[in-house]
Amino acid sequence: MLQDPDDATRSASNIAFIASPNCDERPEGTAITLLVIHNISLPPGEFGGNGVTQLFT
């Protein structure tokens, strides 16, 4: 599936964005070539909670 980013926010629409504490600035002129979307639930089988956010931030 290909999805162009929103021009105003530079993020994909309809997808929750949670900034990583391990992220830094992309070098100028570098194109985005890969987007990885994780589809997990924590605890297993329970969706909609904050377990995934707590794990990755």
Characterize the structure shown.
- By secondary structure, the chain is low in regular secondary structure.
- The protein has one helix at residues 51-56.
- The protein is built from one helix and no strands.
- It is 11% helix and 0% strand.
- The two termini are 27 Å apart.
- The protein has one domain (1-57).
Can you give keywords for this protein?
57 residues; extended; little secondary structure
Q: First CA to last CA: what distance?
A: 27 Å
Structural class by helix and strand composition: little secondary structure
Mean pLDDT: 77
- Helix and strand string, N-terminal first? H
C-alpha Rg (nearest Å): 14 Å
Overall 3D geometry?
A: extended
**Major beta-sheet overview:** none
Helix content: 10-25%
Low-confidence stretches: none
Helical stretch tally: 1
Q: What number of structural domains do the residues give?
A: 1
Give the oligomeric state of the chains in this entry, treating copies of one chain as homo and distinct chains as hetero. single chain
What percentage of amino acids are in beta strands?
under 5%
Number of strands: 0
